[in-house]
Design goal:
The complex is a heterodimer. Chain A is mainly alpha-helical. Helices cover 74% and strands 0% of the residues of chain A. Chain A has helices at residues 7-26, 29-45, 55-74, 77-82, 95-110, 113-123, 129-136, 140-165. The longest helix of chain A has 26 residues, at 140-165. Chain B has a domain at 11-36. The chains are: A mainly alpha, B mainly alpha. At the A-B interface, α1, α2, α5 and α8 of A face α1 and α2 of B.
């Protein structure tokens, strides 16, 4: 049986995904950082059960519960949705990509939390709908429909720019 | 359910997300390292309890059950000869003492 990964290994492999997942809940970087730190403290206190099929999905499931607890404690869901969007994407040298990233950040901020978090998990964490349903504790069809709605909204927000940028 | 992504999804997915600031790593891992672990039951205590319970089970299943009260009292059944002998000896000893 392979040894359980150490905290630094988990951080290096998963902190970025967890940070962005938390950001989709908090809407600001400072709270997302606090959540990330609390999450790793919690992780340090417990042992990782053997036989985890997908470490990423397991961590995201814990992160989801952690973020929901945070929302309950802080009751800032509306504030989070109305806050100025956090810069989500890396700086792109290509101005077209930079423009797309900027618009996408704004478009994501307009989505309801449920759709935004599912879109994050699908598009950038590469989770399947089955995994998303397990992470969030929702039915498979709900995960798929939330993603579909999110994508439709993003498409309508970004279509003019995307049509301009896409290779003909 | 998991249909293949269309070009629009691919274009979005190709955008690199910003990693958390590098200085967070040391800070967060330091805070996590300082966190006290949840106290675990010591192994010697777990082993001690296991041995004690095993001994209890062994004794329970190997000890013959005591005779039930009516049998012990001999109600309704003739007493075994050895009991008669004991009773007779006890009476004789009592008479001899007086």
């Amino acid at each position: 049986m392979p040894a359980a990964p150490t905290l630094p290994e988990l951080y290096d492999a998963h902190a970025a995904g967890l940070f962005h997942y938390f950001t989709s809940f908090t809407g600001n970087e400072a709270d997302a950082k606090d959540l990330l730190q609390e999450f790793f403290i919690k992780l340090a206190r417990q042992s990782i059960p053997p036989g985890i099929a997908s470490m990423r999905a397991w961590l995201l499931r814990l992160a989801h519960h952690h973020a929901i607890d945070w929302l309950r404690r802080h009751r800032v869901r509306r504030d989070a949705e109305e806050a100025a969007p956090v810069e989500l994407f890396a700086t792109h040298a290509d101005p077209d990509q930079a423009e797309l990233a900027q618009r996408l950040t704004r478009a994501l901020a307009l989505l309801p939390l449920e759709q935004r978090s599912v879109a994050q998990l699908k598009l950038w964490d590469g989770l399947t709908f089955e995994e998303i349903a397990e992470v969030q504790g929702i039915p498979l069809n709900t995960a798929a429909s939330r993603y579909r709605y999110a994508l439709e909204k993003l498409r309508s927000e970004l279509r003019p720019l995307y049509d301009e940028l896409k290779p003909s | 359910m998991n249909s293949n992504p269309d070009p629009f999804e691919n274009a979005l997915g190709a955008l690199q997300r910003r990693p958390p600031p590098p200085e967070w790593r040391a800070e967060i891992l330091h805070a996590a390292a300082q966190a006290p672990r949840a106290p675990r039951t010591p192994r010697w205590l777990v082993a001690g309890w296991s041995v004690a319970w095993a001994a209890i089970f062994v004794m329970y299943f190997t000890t013959p059950s005591e005779p039930s009260a009516p049998q012990a009292a001999g109600i309704g059944e003739p007493a075994p000869p050895i009991l008669w002998q004991q009773r007779a000896a006890a009476i004789e000893a009592l008479l001899a003492a007086n």
